[in-house]
Automatic annotation (TrEMBL):
SUPFAM superfamilies tied to this protein: Periplasmic binding protein-like II
Identification of the protein by name: Transporter substrate-binding domain-containing protein
Record keywords, A-Z: Signal
Presence of keyword Signal: yes
Record organism: Inhella proteolytica
PANTHER family, alphabetized: ABC TRANSPORTER SUBSTRATE-BINDING PROTEIN, MEMBRANE-BOUND LYTIC MUREIN TRANSGLYCOSYLASE F
Signal is among the record's keywords: yes
Residue ranges annotated for the Solute-binding protein family 3/N-terminal domain, each copy included: 30-247
Gene3D superfamilies the record matches: Periplasmic binding protein-like II (3.40.190.10)
């Protein structure tokens, strides 16, 4: 018997949520979408999802019983698929705008949001206000929390956005940026330099400011329309029982 896509979608959601009727004790399976270039937290290795954040979510299954099928699709597509209630999104910063349509887990770990400058062009940096008036490179589609977003909206920062960290670093060397903001701390910077032959020869021209912009809590976000708060509650309990998350060394 032919079934409409709408009917099939309802049956899929029913299967994912275990029917939602007194199913808090049941284990669920959830598709989870994520960025594919967020080293060392989320990345592709031998055509499979890898990274510190991926490993932490997968290990939570031993404590909660829930299974997570992780697909690396890029951040923008991940958010688009979540808006269509196709699954959750891994590695999200909490923002008020996202909280209107997403339920958030407790933080799985914290990201070291670092500031990179050209060597010899550093400046006194103790926090976000020290970036005011400068031209800053940021990744497209990403958000590093409400404070930074509000500063951008007020015009305190001039922002250039790109799709790849390698491009951001090239813009920095070309003098088009005063600083580049990156997730993943020193490990992310080193990996980006190693991926690009031109940057490898200029690694000494980069300087990572000693003070991070901040430590960004990273969550699993699930559309409210999927009604999977019970799954997130089980994940939160699992995280509380797991060993502490790894720290990104600078």
């Amino acid at each position: 018997m032919w079934k409409s896509p709408h009917c099939q979608r309802r049956q899929l959601l029913f299967a994912l949520t275990g029917g939602l009727a007194g199913s808090a004790a049941r284990a669920d399976s959830l598709r989870v979408f994520a960025d594919e270039d967020y080293y060392p937290l989320i990345h592709r290795q031998a055509e499979r999802p890898a990274g510190l954040l991926v490993e932490r979510l997968q290990r939570s299954s031993a404590f909660s019983g829930d299974q997570f099928v992780i697909e690396l699709v890029g951040l923008n597509r991940a958010l688009m698929l979540a808006e269509q209630a196709e699954g959750g999104v891994l590695g999200l910063s909490y923002t008020q705008e996202r909280a209107r349509w997403l339920d958030f887990s407790a933080p799985l770990m914290h990201d070291d949001i670092a500031v990179v400058v050209r060597r010899g062009q550093g400046f006194r940096f103790r926090g976000l206000p020290d970036l005011y008036g400068k031209t800053i490179g940021l990744p497209k589609g990403a958000s590093f929390g409400d404070a930074l977003e509000q500063a951008i909206q007020r015009g305190d920062l001039r922002v250039e956005r790109d799709w790849a960290l390698v491009r951001r670093l090239r813009m920095l060397l070309a003098g088009r940026l005063d600083a580049a903001v990156i997730g993943g701390g020193a490990l992310s910077l080193q990996a980006a330099i190693e991926r690009d032959p031109d940057l490898r020869g200029q690694r000494e021209r980069f300087e990572l400011l000693s003070q991070p912009l901040y430590l960004d809590p990273l969550h699993l976000g699930v559309p409210k329309s999927m009604q999977l708060r019970a799954l997130l509650d089980r994940l939160n309990r699992a995280l509380s029982r797991m060993p502490p998350a790894p720290t990104l060394r600078r």
